[in-house]
Amino acid sequence: MDRQSLADWVHHLGDRDLPLLQGTAAILSIVDANPQMSMRAVGRLVQRDPGLALKLIRVANGVPHRHFRTEVVALDEAVMMIGTDGLKRAIQELEKLPDVLSTNAQSYYRYLAGRVAYAATLAEAWAENRHDMIPSEVGLAALLYDLGELVWTIHDERRMARYMELVRDGQVLPHEAEYVALDVSLETVGHALAERWQLPAMVRECMCPANARHARAMGVMLASNLARDAMAAWDHPGVGGNLDQAARYLDCSSEELADYINGATEHFNAHVDLYGLDPVPLLDEETIKAYREKGARPPEPVFCLMPRSDRYEQARSQLASHSLENRDQVLDVLLEGLHEGLGLNRVVFARLSDIGDTLSAERMEGTDHEPAFNRFELNLAGGHLIAVMMKRPSAFWLNPSNCDEVWPRVPHSMRTLIGVREFFAHSVFVGDQPYGLVYADRRSEVCALDRRALKGFKTLVELATAHLESLRQAGRGRL
């Protein structure tokens, strides 16, 4: 998604509110009947409806107030800022869901609203367990994590219906369904809208896949994935891997994890009718153990991403022109060209640390819902394949003809992380100094890499490297 297209979409969508769910107005009667209700409790009521939550946080952060010198980061703070009268005005001002969408699209939107509300409940509970300073801030970040998906549902009913058809059973990953059904990145649109609206920093940071290396953001991403599993009654291809990651994240047993998840589930099920969904089943220790032992079951690809010659040529032309203003633009065009132009499912730029001992993911494409993969990090000690590649500019294609020989030289942490035995890698040098690594794969070996893709991969990486070098020589911004 190029910069101009993104800017056009943000301009088009930037004044839209999310609609109010039917039944949300009942919050007012609950608040009126309980005048001593804490702001935290009111905030949790608001958190049930992402449309109302988004409205309140935007209104609260738009109000100058001498007692609040920093941004309002959570819904309890927002309610405290604008008061119950402000809450009433927000409810009255928002359009109601039946007035905005067709019957079928309302069903999609209610499903999404329920899913993000479940994720928010789960993430906030985990934050409390981890003794987070502001658990409700984490809850809000989880609620708005899929902002792009929520906004697009009210913008384009027809294409979102196709998208939802692809992703509901888990056989197609969300970012691959976007590639086919929408031709936009929902994560990118959501993040751009969050920036335009100046939503709290935590909300914006969680929308960047590379921030999975931070514990708070990782919790939000995991909760979002588990919410998808929960909405499918835990019958979802990735549930085993997601539960195992959650247990590792919380450093807990399967029994403890069941307690954490079931607490959130019971809270959600108490108001599940708001979304028109079935109650989420509870999990017991043995079920979680069984899921974890099976691990993740990546679905067999329903389709392989097709290259798009126009997107590739656009990226090639931009990189060759040396007209981009800074290294961020160069890397964005490179990764988009590899993902959208060549149809490479997962693309990573990993930056070399200042002391030259570690490569850490800085930018990704096609990995929005893979938080474990987004912690891509490689230690260069030990003389393994990647360490050798970082000694000079070089490209490598791991493929069936060399895998038996080379696979043992791939660092163990990388083998575990990527889950495939075929990939492209290219070390990047700027000014004769090692700078980083570009990695790409097709996520599944069913969708094989080929020489044509390798040629395009090498071409774009080499053009990007030359562009970075020209920026360095011109002294234009940091590298």
List the helices and strands and how they pair.
Layout: H1 3-13, H2 26-33, H3 39-46, H4 50-61, H5 75-93, H6 97-100, H7 103-129, H8 135-143, H9 147-155, H10 157-167, H11 174-182, H12 186-196, H13 201-206, H14 215-231, H15 239-250, H16 254-269, H17 285-294, H18 309-321, H19 327-341, E1 346-352, E2 358-365, E3 377-379, H20 385-389, E4 395-398, H21 403-406, H22 412-418, E5 423-430, E6 433-441, H23 451-474
Antiparallel strand pairs: 1-2, 1-6, 2-3, 4-5, 5-6
Helix pairs in contact: 1-12, 3-5, 4-5, 7-8, 7-9, 7-14, 7-16, 8-14, 9-12, 10-11, 14-15, 15-17, 16-17, 18-19, 18-23, 19-23
Describe the structure.
The chain has a 6-stranded antiparallel beta sheet. The two termini are 23 Å apart. It is globular and about 70 Å long. The protein has helices at 3-13, 26-33, 39-46, 50-61, 75-93, 97-100, 103-129, 135-143, 147-155, 157-167, 174-182, 186-196, 201-206, 215-231, 239-250, 254-269, 285-294, 309-321, 327-341, 385-389, 403-406, 412-418, 451-474, and strands at 346-352, 358-365, 377-379, 395-398, 423-430, 433-441. With 479 residues, the chain is an alpha+beta fold. The longest helix is centred in the N-terminal third of the chain and has 27 residues, at 103-129. A hairpin with a 5-residue loop joins strand 1 (346-352) and strand 2 (358-365).
